[in-house]
C-alpha cells in the first residue's frame, strides 16, 4: 500500500478546519462584515498560511451559505442572522438525535463507560487550571464518538460537517459556566443511553442542542 502523503493530507485537512473556524468567528463576530470581500492572498498573509487552505476554507463557507460567490465573481461575506443559527441547530437536532437513537441500541459498553468516567472526572475537577480547555476537548470527543458509534457513515459525515460549523460559535460563547452546563447535559445523555431507551436518549440530545442554541443566540444576537 502506498502511504505517501497521508500525514500531509491529515495536516492539510486540519489546517483547512483551523482557517475555516477563524473565518467563521470573524464573520459571526462582525470582524468580517456582510459584503466584505474575501481575498485569499490577503487572508493567507494575515493567517500566515498558504493560499490553498484559505481557498478550501472559503469553498466550505460558500457551501454553508456564509459566503456568496455569484457567477465566479469575488467571494463576499453573506448576511448572517439569528435565523441562520436556528436553522443550523435544528439540523443538528435531527442528525444527532437520530444518531443517539441508534447508539443506544448498539454502543460498546467500554466506550460508554469511558465517556461516563471522563465526564465524572471533569465534573469533579471543575475550576482547576485548564479546565475549560479540557471541557472543550471532551465536548468534541463526546459528540464525535456518539456519531461514530451510530455506524452510519453518511450520518457521521453530516454531523461532523455541522460540528465544524458550530465549533466557532462554541469558542466564542464557551465560558466555564456554559461548558459546565453542557457537561451536565452530556451526563444526562449518557444516563439515557445507559437506560437503553432510544427515545429518551434522543430527547436528551435534542434538549442539549436546543440549550446550546439558546446560549449562542443570547450572546451573539442580543440586539436583534
Automatic annotation (TrEMBL):
* Annotated keywords: DNA-binding, Transcription, Transcription regulation
Domain of life, source organism: Bacteria
Entry-linked InterPro entries: GntR_C, TF_FadR/GntR_C, Tscrpt_reg_HTH_GntR, WH-like_DNA-bd_sf, WH_DNA-bd_sf
SUPFAM superfamilies xrefs = GntR ligand-binding domain-like (SSF48008), Winged helix' DNA-binding domain (SSF46785)
- HTH gntR-type domain residues are 13-80
The positions making up the signal sequence are none
Q: Which GO terms describe its molecular function?
A: DNA binding; DNA-binding transcription factor activity
A Pfam family: FCD
SMART domains of this UniProt entry? FCD, HTH_GNTR
**What is the protein named?**
HTH-type transcriptional regulator LutR
Organism (species): Gimesia aquarii
- State which gene encodes it: lutR_4
Amino acid at each position: 500500500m502506498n502511504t505517501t502523503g497521508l500525514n500531509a493530507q491529515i495536516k492539510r485537512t486540519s489546517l483547512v478546519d483551523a482557517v475555516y473556524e477563524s473565518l467563521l468567528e470573524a464573520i459571526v463576530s462582525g470582524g468580517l462584515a456582510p459584503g466584505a470581500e474575501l481575498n485569499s492572498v490577503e487572508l493567507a498573509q494575515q493567517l500566515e498560511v498558504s493560499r490553498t487552505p484559505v481557498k478550501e476554507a472559503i469553498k466550505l463557507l460558500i457551501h454553508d451559505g456564509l459566503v456568496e460567490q455569484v457567477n465566479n465573481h469575488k467571494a463576499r461575506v453573506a448576511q448572517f442572522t439569528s435565523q441562520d443559527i436556528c436553522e443550523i441547530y435544528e439540523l443538528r437536532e435531527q442528525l444527532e438525535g437520530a444518531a443517539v437513537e441508534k447508539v443506544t441500541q448498539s454502543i460498546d459498553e467500554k466506550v460508554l463507560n469511558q465517556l461516563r468516567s471522563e465526564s465524572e472526572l471533569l465534573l469533579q475537577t471543575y475550576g482547576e487550571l485548564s479546565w475549560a480547555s479540557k471541557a472543550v476537548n471532551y465536548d468534541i470527543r463526546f459528540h464525535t464518538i456518539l456519531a461514530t458509534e451510530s455506524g452510519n457513515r453518511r450520518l457521521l459525515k453530516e454531523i461532523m460537517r455541522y460540528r465544524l460549523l458550530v465549533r466557532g460559535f462554541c469558542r466564542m460563547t464557551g465560558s466555564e459556566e456554559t461548558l459546565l452546563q453542557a457537561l451536565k447535559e452530556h451526563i444526562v445523555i449518557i444516563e439515557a443511553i445507559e437506560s437503553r431507551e432510544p427515545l429518551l436518549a434522543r430527547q436528551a440530545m435534542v434538549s442539549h442542542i436546543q440549550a446550546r442554541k439558546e446560549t449562542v443566540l443570547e450572546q451573539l444576537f442580543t440586539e436583534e
